[in-house]
Design a protein that fits this description.
The complex is a heterodimer. Chain A is built from 15 helices and 2 strands. Chain A has helices at residues 7-33, 46-49, 79-83, 87-91, 114-125, 137-140, 145-148, 161-169, 173-178, 194-197, 214-219, 234-238, 261-264, 286-290, 313-316, and strands spanning 231-232, 306-307. Chain A starts with 6 loop residues before the first helix and ends in a 5-residue tail after the last helix. Chain B has helices at residues 3-6, 11-21, 27-37; strands at 41-50, 67-80, 85-92, 100-107, 111-130, 139-141, 149-169, 172-193, 199-221, 225-238, 242-246, 255-256, 261-275, 278-291, 308-324, 327-340, 366-378, 383-396, 409-421, 427-440, 466-480, 483-496, 502-518, 523-542, 545-567, 570-584, 587-591, 602-618, 621-634, 649-651, 655-669. In chain B, helix 2 (11-21) crosses helix 3. The chains are: A mainly alpha, B mainly beta. Chains A and B meet through helix 1, helix 9, strand 1, helix 12 and helix 14 of A and helix 2, helix 3, strand 3, strand 5 and strand 8 of B.
């Protein structure tokens, strides 16, 4: 307070006021001249970025970090390519209580129909692995591209191996439960991801599988099961999922049920195939125990996917050689 | 826009204003803009320590043994703005056996290439105590070691993927992908004989595989027409084609291991937008697959290999249309003909009278036709009603002498209805019902060598008559801004017709409830609980005794999570999960005199706790502390009372606890 009345203080205040006025004058002059606002990332984005910023619930500037923000690529879209020109949103008509939404707003809560949302993406991304999007399970259930993809962020969680499953399992609860089971693919570790086997954008295979059939998809990693063999096991050639559940089981090797039960779902009960499993405490014969303990039927029938050995009726025909 | 930020002067607006008015004095703000709009790089390195061996914990992560581990992740990104040229080096888990490294260089909209290295380890969770010598090799000697030694089997995939992309002209692009994978290691195997008095020897399956995939695709993307066609070739080689067993069961060596095989496919897929709301799609593909690996033992036929040939033809046609603004239609047809052209030869002498084996190989051909019709109508308030019909016809070949029952055709028709609400501020969800009926041509009578009628008591699970009912309900409810609730219920029931033995009935139920709550802008919590219950009732026969199994698996899981950023310099994450899977067998005698003793249940429990805190040391540097606890336990009896004839035991620690502590420093930069 002492300084307030100091002669030097008055001088300083005076200089500050003068500077302030000068700045204000500069500002006023600038306002009168109305210089064009600069684009920050995309062509023509100035009209958007004057309001939309990084503090938004859905940040917009970080799109500059993505392929959609690579302006050297002549195909790179602008804000309005996806969201529409949205003139009423920009200018807000006089008398409007609330600013109208952009023409296309993305997300589950959006009033923009899912098909319209997706059309914004498909306008560019309809080829390649998305050719069969129309009519796919996701498309017909109103899944939107942004249900899974984060367009404005550098790290799209569904495209990163470590986090992709979290996105898929947010809807696929049955698979989430199965992945906790002791026999599973290394999905929680991100070493196998959902999109290794499935094409979520649609395919000609059942269950939107990445290849043309169940088996062709499995063979990409398990080609040793393909054969054909001298002795084939019919369900192996037809569909791996007859015996296996790829999302997780309590039986080793992703088998849907423990041997001998799984085998007995097809095989006639002749010879020893209807054997009653022996009690694990030791009751029953050695065979009773051998069909259920350790690897069960596979203790002996080790080449269960097929054998290519052309000799020995006892061994070859029963997948033992 | 968030309410709490609506009135705030945005950084963008501030930066823009300063940029417009302050001329050269804006450099710091420009830096901020660059940080916000240009890709950045980061690197994280540190150390972790696992307190115990954890075969289950580290089964796929490479953290299986007690000790210290290097934690190293990289994400180096550079984009040259003028040309749109990206240079990326991404590494994950570089200090572990599960490491991944990818280098990518591309000029966006022009060309690009990448190379990716990926290691996928798999540790068998069991410890084997065996005298087997030569584990993991093509010659194994039973009781070859003087004393049993503990062994842990494992496999590892080393995968290299190469990619090249070129945009040839507007809308026309070329994509090349090549993947080479070597898989090495060993897994559980064995040999056995004599159903009356089992003689089961422990062996390992030696693995030295090479799998190669090559895909060359030319794509065209136009406003109306899109095409994608090319070549897809695969090659599998096994460097250990046979397992020679020394000291094993007479007449059971060598054992043939998976033969090398190859496939070549040409394919063309496309889509055409007839109008804005009508689109047609198609795919045609032809695959030629062969397997002509030399036999591991001489064949009496004079053939030196199988000469395996399989030709697969695929045709798909699809049409989607919206003839009325509220009505959507869908039709889809898929035809696949897997024609196994492998020559048939009399490899082995036919079995004696009464045998189910005639000594010839049995190529398997399958022809399947599936179709789908669907109509969907938009109702008021965001609802949509969908009805559909699905059809599947499968034709399979067979042979006169069989050990398993067969029918030439199966035919399944499904009708479904669904009421869905996908767009709403508060409640979305769907309720659906599907009814499927599978039948087919009459089952053939099994004939044995000599012409007598064989056993005809079981309809195989994928051929049997089956009625399936499935109901599913999903609800996503956001009663208030911070709270969202997700409920999922799924119930399916299968009833199998036909014969008394085999599968009789099955059910599958899944229920889950997920909650998410934002306590404040800085703290969010999640909680979920789920139950999965599957049952299969089946019967078979031993001698004159008919017995049943009621197989049941119940999986219960629960989890809670917390995410917080109480300060700008501190982020906290916490997750606690617990799951229990229980298997029940429900053995019971239906008729006859043989004893049917119950099998005990088996459970698998996993409890996991993950805690992490990320502390910002400086603006671009942070320290992450993490702690993981996992407790895995079981009373599985699969191996506990089993001893191989050669004395081998296979066991696992029934209770496994691991504490893992990690500390890593992360730095980010532009």
């Amino acid at each position: 307070m002492e300084h307030a009345n100091h002669p030097l203080g008055s001088v300083i205040r005076g200089i500050a006021m003068a500077l302030g006025l000068a700045l204000l004058a500069q500002g006023a002059t600038a306002q009168e001249a109305k210089p064009a606002r600069k684009d920050m990332v995309l062509k023509g984005d100035a009209v958007c970025t004057r309001c939309h910023a990084e503090e938004e619930e859905y940040p917009v500037l970080s799109i500059g970090k993505t392929r959609h923000g690579t302006t050297a690529d002549t195909r790179t879209p602008s804000c309005t390519s996806c969201h529409g020109a949205s003139e009423t949103h920009v200018t807000r008509p006089a008398g409007a209580k609330e600013r109208p939404k952009p023409e296309r707003v993305f997300g589950r809560k959006s009033a923009t129909p899912p098909e319209t949302q997706n059309q914004a993406c498909l306008a560019c991304h309809q080829g390649g692995k998305r050719i069969h999007w129309a009519g796919s399970a996701h498309a017909t259930r109103d899944t939107t591209c942004v249900s899974c993809h984060q367009v404005h962020t550098a790290q799209d969680r569904v495209r990163a191996k470590a986090t992709q499953a979290e996105v898929c399992l947010a809807c696929h609860k049955e698979q989430r439960a199965q992945m906790n089971r002791p026999s599973r693919h290394p999905i929680p570790e991100g070493k196998v991801v959902c999109s290794d086997c499935h094409n979520p954008h649609g395919s000609v295979a059942p269950k939107q599988l990445a290849r043309d059939s169940v088996n062709d998809t499995c063979y990409t990693c398990h080609m040793e099961k393909r054969g054909p063999f001298v002795r084939t096991h019919q369900p192996v050639q037809e569909d791996c999922s007859i015996c296996h559940n790829p999302h997780g089981t309590t039986t080793p090797n992703l088998l849907k049920a423990r041997a001998p039960f799984l085998c007995q779902q097809c095989h006639e009960p002749t010879s020893h195939r209807g054997t009653i499993p022996g009690n694990v405490t030791g009751t029953g014969t050695a065979l009773n125990r051998a069909v259920v303990l350790a690897r069960g039927c596979l203790n002996c029938h080790t080449n269960i996917h097929g054998t290519n050995n052309p000799i020995d009726a006892a061994g070859e025909r029963t997948f033992r050689r | 826009m968030k309410a709490n930020t609506r009135s705030a002067l945005s950084l963008t607006a501030l930066c823009a204003a300063l940029a417009a008015t302050c001329g050269p004095a804006r450099s710091e703000q420009d830096v901020d803009i660059v940080e916000l709009t240009r890709p950045g790089s980061s690197a994280s390195f540190g150390l972790g320590y696992a307190t115990n061996d954890g075969p289950r914990f580290g089964q796929y992560s490479g953290l299986e043994e007690r000790g210290a581990y290097g934690l190293l992740d990289l994400d180096l990104v550079r984009r040259e703005e003028a040309s749109g040229t990206w240079l990326k080096l991404t590494g994950r888990n570089l200090g572990l056996d599960s490491r991944e490294l990818r280098f990518e260089h591309n000029r966006q909209g022009d060309w690009g290439y990448f190379i990716e290295l990926n290691q996928i380890p798999r540790l068998d969770p069991y410890t084997v105590s065996t005298q087997l010598a030569g584990i993991g090799t093509g010659t194994q000697t039973i009781s070859g070691l003087a004393a049993a030694a503990p062994v842990r089997l494992d496999t590892r995939r080393d995968r290299v993927t190469l990619g090249f992309d070129k945009l040839l002209s507007r809308g026309l692009d070329l994509q090349v992908r090549f993947r080479n994978e070597n898989k090495e290691g060993a897994r559980l195997f064995g040999q056995g004989t004599s159903p009356g008095a089992p003689n089961v020897r422990f062996l390992t399956d030696p693995i030295d595989y090479t799998t190669r995939l090559l895909e060359v695709t030319l794509g065209y993307t136009g406003e109306r027409l899109q095409l994608s066609g090319g070549y897809y070739g695969t090659d599998f080689q096994n460097d250990i084609p046979a397992l020679n067993v020394v000291g094993g069961i007479a007449g059971q060596s060598p054992i043939a291991l998976p033969p090398g095989n190859q496939s070549h496919q040409i394919h063309l897929a496309g889509g055409y937008n007839f109008t804005q709301s009508t689109r047609g799609t198609f795919k045609v593909a032809y695959t030629h697959q062969r397997q002509n690996e030399p036999f591991v033992t001489a064949s009496a036929t004079g053939r030196t290999d199988l000469g395996g040939k399989v030709s697969t033809t695929l045709l798909q046609l699809g049409l989607t249309a919206r003839p009325l603004p509220k009505l959507s239609l869908l039709a889809n047809l898929r035809y696949e003909d897997r024609d196994d052209k492998t020559p048939i030869a009399q490899y082995i002498a036919s079995g004696a009278a009464g045998s189910t084996f005639d000594g010839r190989n049995e190529p398997r051909s399958i022809e399947s036709t599936t179709g789908k019709l669907e109509a969907s109508y938009a109702l008021p308030m965001g609802f949509r009603l969908t009805g559909g019909l699905d059809y599947e016809l499968k034709k399979r070949n067979t042979y006169l002498i069989r050990s398993v029952s067969h029918r030439d055709e199966t035919e399944e028709v499904s009708a479904r209805a669904e009421l869905r609400r996908s767009v709403s501020e508060t409640v979305t969800g769907a309720l659906s019902y599907v009814r499927s009926e599978r039948g087919g041509s009459p089952f053939l009578t099994n004939i044995v060598i000599g012409g007598a009628t064989g056993s005809n008591l079981v309809h195989p699970l994928h051929l049997a008559d089956r009625d399936r009912d499935k109901v599913r309900l999903t609800v996503n409810w956001q009663p208030s801004l911070p709270l969202s609730i997700q409920f999922f219920a799924d119930y399916a029931q299968d009833k199998y017709g036909g014969r008394a033995l085999g599968l009789r009935e099955g059910t599958a139920q899944t229920y889950s409830l997920d909650l998410s709550y934002a306590f404040t802008d800085k703290w969010q919590g999640t909680a979920w609980i789920s139950r999965n219950d599957t049952r299969a009732e089946q019967q078979t026969q031993s001698g004159t005794t008919i017995w049943a199994a009621d197989l049941r698996n119940i999986g219960d899981a629960v989890g809670v999570g917390l995410r917080g950023k109480p300060y700008s310099w501190l982020e906290i994450e916490a997750d606690l999960t617990h799951s229990r899977d229980k298997s029940e067998y429900g053995l019971a005698r239906v008729s006859g005199a043989a004893a049917v003793a119950p099998l005990p249940d088996a459970f698998f429990d996993v409890t996991g706790l993950k805690l992490s805190a990320k502390y910002a040391v400086r603006k671009n540097t942070s320290l992450r502390l993490s702690y993981v606890y996992e407790r895995w336990s079981t009373d599985d009896w699969t191996w506990t009372t089993w001893t191989y004839t050669d004395g081998t035991r296979v066991l696992q620690d029934p209770v496994q606890k691991v504490h893992f502590i990690g500390i890593a420093l992360q730095h980010r930069w532009q």
